[in-house]
Amino acid sequence: MINACLHLIKTPNAQDDTLLQYVPGPDFPTGGIIVEPRESIAQAYATGRGAFRLRCRYAVEDLGRGQWQVVVTEIPYQVQKSKLVERIAELIQTKKIPILGDVRDESAEDIRLVLEPKTRNVDPDVLMGMLFRNCDLEIRFSLNMNVLIDGVTPKVCSMKEVLRAFLDFRRDVLCRRARHRMEKIDHRLEVLEGLIVAFLNLDRVIDIIRYDEDPKAALMREDWGKDHVRARDEADYVPPAPVTDDDGLGLTDVQAEAILNMRLRSLRRLEEMELVAERDALMEERAGLEDLLDSEELQWKTIADQLRAVRKAFGKDYDGGARRTDFAEAGEIEEVPLEAMIEREPITVVCSQMGWIRAMKGHIDLGSELKFKDGDGPRFTFHAETTDRLLVFASNGRFYTVSAANLPGGRGMGEPLRLMIDLPNEAEIIAFLIHQPGRKLLVASTAGDGFVVPEDEVVAQTRAGKQVLNVPGDTRALLCKPVAGDAVAVVGENRKVLVFMVDELPEMTRGKGVRLQKYKDGGLSDAATFTLASGLSWLDPAGRTRTETDLTDWIGKRAGTGRMAPRGFPRDNKFT
Predict the structure, then answer these.
(1) pLDDT category of residue 245 using cuts at 50, 70 and 90
(2) Average pLDDT of span 55-59
(3) Domain map of the chain by residue range?
(4) Domain 179-308 in CATH 1.10.268.10
(5) Model pTM score
(6) Fewer CB within 10 Å, N or C, the chain?
(7) What's the number of CA atoms in the CB half-sphere (13 Å) around residue 18?
């Protein structure tokens, strides 16, 4: 910064890009590494607004035998170490960074945070990249140079304007100090002149002080231009005559007071010589101050000398004066999918009727008997893998996303699913399925409205889920099924079945949907997608699969009423 000021003194019309060579970026007291591109830094300094990406300083320590750990030695400015450690521990506990195993604070006088990977096969750059995105090991430090340049009006200034204002302020301070010093010198010169007069007329001064009733007034009335003889006693003392304008060489009030306050030990020849020497030195200093105030060039030279003195005293040679914050390229942080960080293992997901969920190791027989709490039973049981993402569709029309790797183990009864997602107590789980990218889903409500939604659009990023199907009033979400085939079959509570083509349904990401089937009374019971050429299948009351290939009587346009279900159709009005 001092170098930039010196350059600006020498070249007042310097460009912002030139000043950037002297001030490449901010230097933070806690160190760290700035990874902001040079173009962004230049833009921030030119406009007065911007931000700087500041990262921690770290090193990878080799522990031997392929083991390693990351040691953080500097953290970003204004980041509290305790809160940072708590945040990293939270990331480990919630498994948001599965490749991170542990964090330890081994700090003493210096910062030392130890990050241990889950396995030694992890890439350190990938680990740190994930930490940069999820905690304050990397921050954005804002810059807003909104200042009062003239002390009244706020203005967003560039770096050049701020430095110019700083130099103008230093010049103003220099001139005010010079004037103040001149006032002090003038006062001291006045006192010195009076003391020198006293030394030259010491006997007369002593007589006045000894014999006059008001020595101060007498000293001011005395004509010190005449020769005086010391009185031998009070009878010989002659009071001073009033001073006239013609021969007036009397003392001022300040000089008289200084003489009266003078100590007896100062009445020696050496002291008189010192007073004369001090007077000459002050007069020389005053002449220099006058030259300084009269010359703008001399003022800037003085300011430059002061800045160089500061640089010499607190520059690189000073203990702690070297730059602490370095610069580096941020580089591209690879977007590592969650599946790549989780060990792929088979599991069996079990969700009970009361919403208790667990993940049992391996693919067990789905028909085997499982233990549940009293009054509870199985609801959803399916095979999955730890790398899968699970979609939960609730009766409030919201989709929730759960990572299979975060499910509790299967030794106990599991944990309530509502602890993992923000599922309201009045909402019921409608569907539970494994996310398959690129697949499409059919969603519908009890009112008979529905649409097709791409499965990639329903994945939620937060615990609150994602609203997809709007269900106003007393309406509830009824079903969510993967689209498989070219036709849709719907059945109402009135047992009427309607078959129409899938392309009659709109593809949406959110909404109420369109009418699937028209009802006088009741609502929708079930819906299914199938291949029209293969026929419509369902389970009859005996548990056998029945397929109806001739669906001519039930085929119609969407939003029709349909016809009564075929003979043998289940009494619960469900296709599966």
Answers:
(1) very low
(2) 94
(3) 2-162, 179-308, 338-564
(4) yes
(5) 0.58
(6) C
(7) 13
